[in-house]
What does this fold into?
Amino acid sequence: MKYQKQIKECERLSAPYCVTKGEKFCLKDYDTNDTGEVKNQEHGEKIIANRAGLLTNLQEKLYAQDRWALLLVIQAMDAAGKDGVIKHVMSGVNPQGCDVHSFKTPSTEELNHDYLWRAHSRVPERGMIGIFNRSYYEEVLVVRVHPKILEAQKLPNPLITKHIWEQRYEDINAFEHYLTHNGIVICKFFLHVSKKEQKKRFLERLEDSKKNWKFSMADVKERGYWKDYQEAYEELIQNTATKHAPWYVIPADNKWYTQLIVASAIISTLEELDLSFPDVDKSKKKELESVRKSLVRE
Ligand code: ATP
Ligand code: MG
It folds into this structure.
């Protein structure tokens, strides 16, 4: 097989960041600046060049087979590189087989429903890759850091208790179980950036006129809650990292490395599905052959 070496490499590169059992997870064990076995950006680019076409190939089979779907959940602090990761992943796939959805502050209509409603309606169809730019995990992140948001969710009062976050982890786990039982494969990414690197990127957005549009006052405000967010991330990974829906904690201080590892994890996950183009049965083959012959004769 043409890509055997590259596939092994994808597994090897992404495995150190994959969390499948949350109980003992500690965020401080994960270095935001790590670049693993990859020496520098140039080396990273070489790895990517060597695997050109691999993801396209896997996606084509996913699409043609029309059985599995892949859901990629991307979560991060602001300026950690979500957009860059999505752009990178999308550059390797056929846009027809891929769907990106960004989850913003819920609308009035969305608030009239349970919180998974809007996420469930965006789950990718069979054969598709779906990317969630933020997700239902905001319900145990921003909502947890700012409990005032919970009040706007119109939940009946007796249901807002100190157990609400535990209950949400439980519900999210059940939801993800349900999806995997239906052939939707889930991969979750936390782009783990340092506070120092975020400051650097915010300053770039302020100082470079081409990046001004990306700067948001709200992002700086959220930076003030850094510690609360880190704790919320750690706890949610402890509670929702499972074998069927793992969290990848991706070093995000070097954008090129973040993109390399996310792509590696996606390739490894698709590869494990053992995808193939659908078989054509004997009578269909006969039919194709006769059409071929008549076309040649034309
Ligand atoms: P970018 O800034 O790169 O465009 P973004 O994901 O930060 O991407 P924004 O429009 O800036 O997009 O922010 C979306 C906001 O919506 C975030 O602050 C996020 O916390 C918030 N949000 C998402 N889901 C929820 C939710 N369920 N409840 C409350 N707020 C949410
Ligand atoms: Mg933003």
